[in-house]
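[RESIDUES AND BACKBONE]
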Amino acid sequence: MQNALFVGVSSQVALQRELDVIANNMANVSTNGFKSRNSRFQEYLMPVAQADSFTPPDRRISYVIDQGTTLNLDQGPVEQTGNPLDIAVKGNAFIAVQAPNGGGERYTRNGALTVNAQGQLVTSDGYPVAGDGGPIAVNPQETGLSIGPDGTVSTNLGIRGRIKLVTFANPGALVNEGANLYSSPSPARPAGIDGRVESGALERSNVRPVLEMTRLMDVNRSYAMVTSMISRMDELRGSAISKLANVA
């Protein structure tokens, strides 16, 4: 009976984690370049007694272990905006940006760029876009700003820099840092021919709302079933204790 309660609790913890992941995905349906996550779980079999004297032998007890989440790198839908500072990143490349307070490089798929008061090319959250030769700056007097497929930023005065596009040996290991930024436990490498952008367009979130809503309903039903099972087991245990206490 006690084992059943422990198994139920492990399932509830896993389902709660799944619910958190789904909620975060749904909250970012409209976030440019957002990549959804999926939960990963693993079965854990409790070690059993090795003695041969048990009749019947111990049954294997299966628990649920949270193994973290995986990053869904599927391309989100690309929407034409006509804004020359908007770029949609293609493939598994990421835009390198400068984190605040000297925090080093971070990476994003949010291609909604703008020019700040200092003339620097920045993301919509204000993070300076890294260039191959340092920050990319544009003078207010310059006109005709455009971004080429390889990330080259040009104006009427010529090339002003090239957006640093990077990729990773294992992009699925990227860590969410908030504000649609990622950090990486392994070094970034130049994206090369894999790093292409489409100017005048934005990559939207790759979250599929209908699928996430279906997952949400499934998780809620499963959580309710486990909660009901735990409640029944608790009532059964209380009833057994009460009856045993009344034995003369």
User: Anything to note?
Assistant: The longest helix spans residues 209-245. The CA atoms of residues 30 and 220 lie 24 Å apart. The chain has two helices and 19 strands. The two ends are 24 Å apart (CA to CA).
